[in-house]
Amino acid sequence: MLVKIRQVWFFVALVVLNCLPEPVCQAAEADPTLQVLHWWTSPRERKAASLLANRLMDEGVAWKDVGVPGGAGIGAGKVLKSRVLASDAPEVTQIIGASIRDWADLGFLLELDKVANANKWKTAFFPTIQTLIQYRHHVVAAPLGIHRINTLFYNRKLFSSLKLAAPESWNDLVNVAAKLKTAGIKPLAQSSEPWQVATLFENLILAENGPDFHREVFSRQNPQAVLERRFLVALERLRLMKSWMIQAIDERPWPDVVRQFANREAAMMIMGDWAKAELNETDYETDLEFSCATMPGTGRFHLYSVDTFSMFTKDYAHVAAQEKLARLIGTSQMQNEYNAAKGSVSVRQDADPNKMDSCARASWSDFAQGAAMQAPSLAHRMATDESSRDAIIAVIHRFFIDDALSPAETQKRLAALFRTLNMNIRK
């Protein structure tokens, strides 16, 4: 039987803490050094982290880096849990999406209301961001940037030589893939890592069906939604796209997939815009060698993930340093510098799109349209809690790997899973 993550966290809290430290027992301010746990380990991600670390040092606080490799933060999540169990939680950790609420529910996260109020975060940040970083009317996370997950990268020069336009619809994409295959070119760089398969699949759900259906499936987990024909069509399309891939069952880390695309082993790649930063690290530059578009069928929809840092309370000895980092993260200058390096876009409503490249400008402008055009990513913990996310991804990944498994059977498996998850919530 599936166990809800809140029950697991509650057990962890009881093991680690017989009672939580009270603010009245705050220790004296310790040496101004912050351990920062994150999963930014690719070359461009490290560059973005270094920018933050250097600016923090200018504030008189040292950044002790604890980078844990692993796409989608899977490895970092395991390290964080083990360190909490050992009563050795880092002062700062990258926690995103629904996980923020789960940790805050246990009282582990420092409230950043003073920083948020002093720096007018309520008016500076997009409404979706404000909601994400709050728990019970308290700010418990500092937002770094917004990633667009429904990004299609394509080889600009190759498309031009074959007289191909960027595909805007599913039929366009099918036709482009067929012409590329006829020319002896693999259409798609893609890994079969579970989270990467889930990323591709939720793009297909968003395409043609829109944000409402995406939320109905992955956030509300409606059993009837996955039994609809449009969900079956998305599964059939996923299986077709498998035939476009270089090695369909090859579980490559995402930086390797980016390198395949950069090495011109495939003409297209569907991935979050962090890939743009890695491509720009080489001579494969935006608007020269490659271009960005939205996943065909998603138009101006924005499938998003948001990078956030939360501060662990521990003994309250690092509050001043933690608040300095939180304040720094929210500033216009830091937002501009960090997101330009990371490939993401600013969480601030007053950012200047004219200072962004074409990919970033489209991402920021589309996100600014508001919640009706936004869809929270399943693969990147925006849509649901971690245990539900993992269970959903497992079913989708099994369908992707096993060609003998029919779309209809997969629909039934997911509907049964959603009914179980809904029963656990009611309990």
From TrEMBL:
The protein's name in its UniProt record? Probable sugar-binding periplasmic protein
Tell me which PANTHER family the record gives: ARABINOSE-BINDING PROTEIN-RELATED, BINDING PROTEIN COMPONENT OF ABC SUGAR TRANSPORTER-RELATED
The domain of life for this entry's organism is Bacteria
Q: What is its main location?
A: periplasm
Q: Where in the cell is it found?
A: Periplasm
**Record keywords, A-Z:** Signal, Transport
- Please describe what this protein does: Part of a binding-protein-dependent transport system for a sugar.
Which stretch is the leader sequence? Answer: 1-27
Annotated family: Belongs to the bacterial solute-binding protein 1 family.
Q: Output the InterPro entries linked to this UniProt entry.
A: Bact_solute-bd_prot1 (IPR050490), SBP (IPR006059)
